[in-house]
Design goal:
Helices cover 23% and strands 32% of the residues. The chain has 9 helices and 20 strands. Helix 2 packs parallel to helix 4. The longest helix is centred in the middle third of the chain and has 18 residues.
Length: 389
């Protein structure tokens, strides 16, 4: 069983009367890679800074190994931090940048031989063996980041805090460093607490993801749980792409959307309870019109390399569908969704705020809404009723 290392109890934080962290309760286990994920202003960096000792919560307690550490300064906590700006010393070479914290240590004061041994050990961990005499200004962004990580780890903290450390890197290097950070965490066997707004980073590296918004924790779980079983419309929209529509849960395993009933795998709702229904773009199959559960009109097509992103109008509600099948604009298509392609959620404050791609203007320039004739759908044989395979 994993050992609990850090716990925040009823922690709140306010700046000038504005609440940025609202009574959160969370714990972090030892030797795990945990990610705080959310949009700007959600409270994730504030949470990290409270753990690191750079901020003292307005209310609540911070526990480390069961001991309250609210008043313990950062340099006396068993944590270290890597920021987005690495703050390396340009006048020192790689070796001296990493050794800097060790040389400041007074109790006990380290011998030069031990400093050398620990710095070289860290260089090997971050795959920079042989770089000890290089000037940091001559290094690439990824190499500088590894130096910053080595400098943070050389003091042997029990927890490493990382505040969006990949933000300054290009996309290809970011992907490489995602794998590298996970490798380093496993090699060191310590807890990493990582802050990002990038969902791909969170899903690819983490053992546990904490999704935050508006100073509150929305969901905690494994990457698979967060993606496949989102708790509300915010989580469903923020983690990947989602079509989120209003539905009615008739009974266990039967959900209604667009006036039609469909088989699903969800249960535990009240009969006829209003719900939010999530359908991921990759879970929708395009089929001939006569075989379709629903029929819609293609309003936009974007080639993405491996697949097409197409926007389809279903009775005025725009869906995103990801498919390898090309469907031209203005074509009418049928769709099929397997029971495990539906995910049913309780209604929340975020209901109705996400999931309609009619306003997805950054990538899809929607000129106008397409016309849709519900009577034509009835003539196609796609009226009400219970869908059977």
């Amino acid at each position: 069983m994993a050992k609990e290392l850090i716990r925040l109890v009823n922690c709140s934080m306010a700046f000038d009367g504005e609440v940025v962290l609202d009574n959160i309760n969370i714990y972090f286990n030892d030797k795990k890679f945990l990610t705080l994920l959310g949009p700007s202003g959600c409270g994730k960096t504030t949470t990290l800074r409270i753990i690191g000792g750079f901020l003292k919560p307005t209310s609540g307690d911070v526990l480390f190994d069961g001991v309250r550490i609210n008043d313990v300064p950062p340099h006396r906590r068993r944590v270290n931090t890597v920021f987005q700006k690495y703050a390396l010393f340009p006048h020192l070479d790689v070796f001296e940048n990493i050794a800097f914290g060790l040389r400041l240590q007074k109790k006990p004061k380290l011998a030069e031989a031990e400093i050398k041994e620990r710095v070289l050990e860290m260089l090997e961990v971050v795959n920079l063996k042989g770089f000890e005499h290089r000037q940091v200004s001559s290094l690439s962004g990824g190499q500088q980041q590894r130096v910053a990580i080595a400098r943070a780890l050389v003091n042997r903290p029990e927890v490493l805090l990382l505040d969006e450390p990949l933000g300054a890197l290009d996309m290809r290097l970011r992907k490489d460093m995602q794998n590298e950070l996970k490798r380093i965490q496993q090699a060191m066997g310590i807890t990493f607490i990582y802050v990002t707004h990038d969902q791909e980073e969170a899903l690819s590296m983490s053992d546990t993801v904490v999704v935050m918004n508006e100073g509150k924790i929305q969901q905690i779980g494994t990457p698979e749980d967060i993606y496949n079983e989102p708790k509300n419309a915010f989580v469903a929209d923020f983690i990947g792409e989602s079509n989120i529509v209003d539905g009615i849960m008739h009974e266990d395993g039967v959900v209604e959307i667009f006036g039609r009933k469909f088989k699903c795998l969800d249960s535990g709702f009240d009969p006829m309870e209003p719900v939010d229904v999530v359908i991921r773009p990759e879970d929708v199959d395009i089929v001939p019109l006569k075989e379709g559960m629903l029929t819609g009109l293609v309003t936009n097509v974007t080639f993405k390399g491996v697949h097409y992103d197409i926007i389809v109008d279903f009775k005025g509600f725009k869906w995103l569908i990801q498919t390898t099948d090309f469907c031209p604009v203005d074509s009418k298509i049928g769709i099929k969704i397997d029971p495990d392609g539906f995910h049913v959620m309780k209604k929340s404050k975020y209901s109705g705020m996400f999931g309609d791609y009619s306003s997805y203007s950054d990538e899809y320039d929607e000129i106008s809404d397409s016309e849709y004739d519900p009577e034509a759908e009835e003539e196609d044989g796609q009226g009400g009723g219970y869908y059977e395979d």
